[in-house]
Amino acid sequence: MPCPELFFDSSALFSGVISASGASRALLLLGEAGQVSITLSEQVVTETERAVARKLPRALADFRETIRATGMCIVRDPSPSEIEAYVDIIAHPADVPIVVAAVQVETDYLVTLNRRHFIDDPAVAERSELRIGTPGDALAWVRRYLMEAEV
Question: What pTM was estimated for this model as a whole?
Fold first, then answer.
C-alpha cells in the first residue's frame, strides 16, 4: 500500500518548522521517515519562507533543511486559467490556488491551520472533493491509515 499523500498549506508548514512538537512537526517527521509523502505548491513555499523570515529569521535554515530532509514534492502553482475554473471553490480568493494545487495532485489530505477559510466552511471540502483538516486531524487519519495498512 502506498504511503499517505499530504498537501500542506503555509500555516501547517510554518507550524511544523518553528515548533519542536505538535502535530505539524510529527507529520514532517513522518515525511522524513518515508511514512507519508508531503506536497507543497510554489505559493506555499514562498508564503512560508516569507513568514519564517519575518517572524523567526533564525529558523530559515531549519525551513530549508525541512524541505530537503522530508523530500517534499514542490509543484508548480496552477495557471490563471486553472484558477479561474475553480474561482468559487473557496470564499477567500488568495486560497484558491492552494485548493486547486491540492486537487490537481489528487492528495489524500489537505493539511491546514486555517480554520476560518478551509475547515469551518464545509463547502470547500465538498466542492474540491478533498479531505481537509488540521494537522491533528491529519495525524489521526494517517495513524488509522497506517494501522489499516498493517492488517
Answer: 0.95
